[in-house]
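Re: the 190-residue chain
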Amino acid sequence: MRFNVIVCDPPWSFSDKLAMSTVPRSADANYPTLNLNDIFNLQVQNIVDVDCVLALWTPSCMLVDGLALMSTWGFDFKGTYSWTKMRKDMKGPAFGMGHMFRQSHEIALIGTHGKPLKHIKNRSQRSVCLDINKGHSIKPEALQDSLDLMWTTGTKLEMFARRQRPNWVCLGNEIDGKDIRQAISEIEIL
């Protein structure tokens, strides 16, 4: 099976052993992470269609790694999508974690393989969303909602998903307990 739209939120492992309170703040304390080699070695290039767009959630401190990963998987960097984490009352940015600045946003790098832009049906989607933080590393649905409007046809994949989504193939150990490497190899066979 080959995909035209891919959203990927890798469980990046990096030095974020935040221990400012009894709340488990680091990625490693909240879910199993993958090191850079494991993420780079995912065979994503084997499941990419001729024309494909990739939205790759990347921690701000790992932008260089995210750009290199995108290139390794065969995508050309085109821009960014940003989620501004809002307070629960939506009256301003949330007070996030961070070593230098308190992070109130997350970035998805946007890349293309082939010419997916010629297939866009809706060109009014914005590059930023404002939404509350629903939990550690849980992304809002706004990015996928926009991609659904932009690419109304084609096959769509969400990697490291935490729930199913209509008309998408959603892979993630929180869904079926499978390691992402096994799940990708099973898709390659289809």
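The mean pLDDT is 89.
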